[in-house]
Each structure stands twice: as structure tokens, then as C-alpha cells.
Amino acid sequence: MTRPQQQPLLGILGGMGPLATVDFLGKLTRLVPAHCDQDHLPWLTLSQPDMPDRSSAIRDGDDRPREWLAKGVAWLAEQGVSLIALPCSTSHFWFEAMQEASSVPIMHIADATVEELRLSPLPRSGKVAVLATRGTIRSGMYSARLRAADFQVVVPDEAGQMKVDRIIAQVKAGEGSAARQEMQLLQAELSRQGVAALVLGCTELPLACDHRSADGLPAVDVSLALARACLRRLGYLD
Amino acid sequence: MTRPQQQPLLGILGGMGPLATVDFLGKLTRLVPAHCDQDHLPWLTLSQPDMPDRSSAIRDGDDRPREWLAKGVAWLAEQGVSLIALPCSTSHFWFEAMQEASSVPIMHIADATVEELRLSPLPRSGKVAVLATRGTIRSGMYSARLRAADFQVVVPDEAGQMKVDRIIAQVKAGEGSAARQEMQLLQAELSRQGVAALVLGCTELPLACDHRSADGLPAVDVSLALARACLRRLGYLD
Fold first, then answer.
1. Closest CA to B1 of A78, A128, A25, A212
2. CA A167 → CA A121, A175, A225, B10, distances in Å?
3. What is the DSSP track for B118-137?
4. Which of the ends of chain A has fewer CB neighbours closer than 10 A, N or C?
């Protein structure tokens, strides 16, 4: 790409889903301590909501997302971006294939989450529940890293996972208030099961959290964690 | 660009300002009647907040934005987008140069606004005030089109324009609540002057409107108008 001036560009592969991508871009923008447009981070986002569903692909052993993801990051790298982010946990199932296809580093969303946890005041005692798609849960990307950082990790049982699936589908279908109601019920149930904190391990889930309600469990938003980690790498945050 | 599947892509040149771009992308996403990711519109956005300020360039007769804008749209066109949108009114000062540089059509934000007005229940009687940057006001892009559509158009006096300038700068600096306060005062003043409706002719201004407050004047949001017009062109809305 030819730009009249060359400042570091962040490359973002999005659309998985589309609202989660917009939510990530909003977080990225609001986190920058900027006084005017020119203080902000330039970025390039390709939003491809038309790619095959990642979670069902993992379930069915269908490898079609690999081509979309590898081509997407390779194309971003060719445009001269300095770092790539994917505001979609499930896509990180194909992380190695993507990193191999890209000549620039990709910030892993679960590494960003652990970085965020290290800097957060979240209690180390008590169980942390990972809420994510079945594909992400199956990959173990969050559980493995959290256990390595000495957290007690739990994942929802089948009834709980069905609720998580439903919340994600509701956000993707634009049914925000139904998603928020379902999330409140799920949080109350997890709290009764002794869960002390949540990792919102799918970028749709923060969109189902009602920040106006005070009865939610403390939660790490992986989308916010990814935005912060990218801004730190590119020198926009300490 | 090589994508495994070729659906029409919307190209967006953004960053002017960054929050207004995210706001536009959010509107674009929420307007699509989608049930899952795959129903959504694919898009490609280049956000260049580091380009020179448009309004002061127009004031000072500085033509540097032309190169950024022309290169930006030319690059988007080369990537195979079907239509280009710029969620920034002031940049449309260089519309002809951009359209000349781009092999694909650019949706003019003021044409989209007139299209929106034609479809809206806004009263035809009474004065419509155009709120925008000094550069946009000077270009007359909204006034000319609104007068041609039989609206009585007014623009703020110097004291009013200073308030508009301040609101836009506050949104760009992330000072949302100060911007909303200032906007409420300005609306009350315009209402006293007999203004019946507003054209929020700068994509930062909708971000300063408090939708929870009922005492605002009816307003056309040019960012929403642009999103709707693009979705109609690409077959996502009737």
C-alpha cells in the first residue's frame, strides 16, 4: 500500500462476528490517550463475515476456515501492517497456520488475556470460568494458559455451554436484550457453583454483559485485553 | 486482493475522525437484517487518523489532504471494492479529485443525506440548521442540496459555529460528556431562534447527541444516512 506517510499500521482480520469487530475497534480507539485525530493509531481492517463458521468447522473437522484466515493475514502482511490482531477467539484454533502465512507477528488473543490477568486485580483464589464457543473450549487455548498462570479453571457443563452457545448466537443475530438476560441467569448460576470470576473468551460475550447491572461476576474481556496488548506493542500505551 | 469467495465488498476510508469511523461501522452492522455472521456485508476499512486536518486545510488553502484522500480511494478501488464511503463530511470538499482517482463509485455523504430526508418524516416547513465544520459549511455541500430539495436552510452565526467547533474537538478528544452538554445548550439556543430540525453534518456530531434526552430537535444523522444509502446500493436494504 502507498500511504503519503508511513506510521505503523495495525492489521485486523474481522467479521467473526461483525459486531464483535466493531466493539474491538471502539475499544482500540477509546483506549488511546489522544487529544486529536492525529494522535490515534492508523489501522486496516478486513471484515469477512461471509467466511464459514469457525466453531462448527472445528466440531465437524472441516478445515475450510484455514484458507480464509491464512489468505486474510497474508494479505494484511503484504499491505505493510506491523502487527495483526483477530478479535475472534475461535479463529485462533488455526493460529499456527496463520502465523506461518504471515510475515508479521500476530498477537494471540489468549496471550493478551494472560497479560491482562497479570495486570488485573482479579483474585487468584477461587474458580475462574472460561466462557467461549465449543471450538475454543475444545482447543484449550485459555484453560492451558490460565492453569500455567496458577488459576483454578472450570468450563461450563453441557447445560451451561448450551446457554453460552445461545448468547453468542443472539449477539450475532442482533438480539442484544435477550442475550443480556440469558447472561445474567448464567452468571447467577455460575456464582452458585462457586465461580469467582469469568473469562469472556468469545468476543461476542462482552456485548451480552450489562455494565449497568452491579450483580455480575468480575470478568476479563478478551477483546479489551487484545486491544490493550496491541496498543502496548505499538507504543500507544505503557 | 484474493479472497476465497467474492461477494461485493464496501470500501471505507476512515480515521477522520477515528471514533466517527467506528460509529459508522456500528451503524452499518446494526442496520443489516442479519441472523448470523454470513448474512452481513463484508467490508474493508483503512483508518488514517494521521492525515492532515481537513477543516483547517480548507481554511488555509492547504491542499495536502487531496493526496491522502486520492491515494486512499485509489488503493481501495484496486482491492476490488464495489463502492466507497467516507464517513467524514469535510473530506467531501475533495470529492471530484477522489472520484477521478477511483475506478469505482464513491457514495457522496450529502447525496445520502438528501435521500434520507426524502424518506424521513421531517417537517418541510420551518428552518433546518446545518451543523458542520467550517470547511463543510464553506463548501456549501449540504445547503445547496437542501435548498434544491425545498428546505429553508440556516447555518449557525459565529457564536454558534464556535460552539460547533468545540463540540467536534471534544468528541475527537474523547470528552463525550462535555460535548453532550455543549450540544444541549446549542440546541436550546437554535430552537429559540426558530430552528425546527438539524442536519448533523459532521460525523462527530451524532456522538455528542444524548439520545436519552427527549428535548433535542429532530435531526438527520449524516453517518446513518450514509450507511443506509450504501446498504441500499449493495442490496442489503430496500
1. A78
2. 27, 9, 21, 28
3. HHS---SSSEEEEE--HHHH
4. C
d(CA A52, CA A30): 31
The predicted-structure confidence for B49-83, as pLDDT tens digits, reads as follows: 999 999 899 999 999 999 999 999 999 999 999 99
Report the distance separating Cα B82 and Cα B78, nearest Å: 10
Question: For residue A129, what is the enclosing H or E element?
Answer: strand A127-131
Question: ipTM, 2 decimals?
Answer: 0.92
Q: Look up the CATH number of domain B10-108+225-233.
A: 3.40.50.1860
Instruction: Quote the cell numbers at residue A20.
Output: 464483535
Query: Which tens digits make up the pLDDT trace of A20-50?
Result: 999 999 999 999 999 999 999 999 999 999 9
**Residue written as grid cell 444523522:** B221
Nearest-Cα residue of chain B relative to residue A75: B1
Query: B163-178 b/e with 16+ CB inside 10 Å = b?
Result: bbebbbbbbbbbbeeb
Domain with CATH 3.40.50.1860 in chain A: 10-108+225-233, 110-222
Pick the CATH number of B110-221 from 3.40.50.1860, 3.40.50.720, 3.40.30.10, 3.30.429.10: 3.40.50.1860
Instruction: Show the beta-strand stretches assigned E in B150-233.
Output: 152-154, 195-200, 219-221
Residues of A in contact with B40 (CB under 8 A): 15, 17-18, 47, 49-50
Out of A21, A36, A75, whose CB is closest to B173? Answer: A36
Under DSSP, the state recorded for A152 is: E
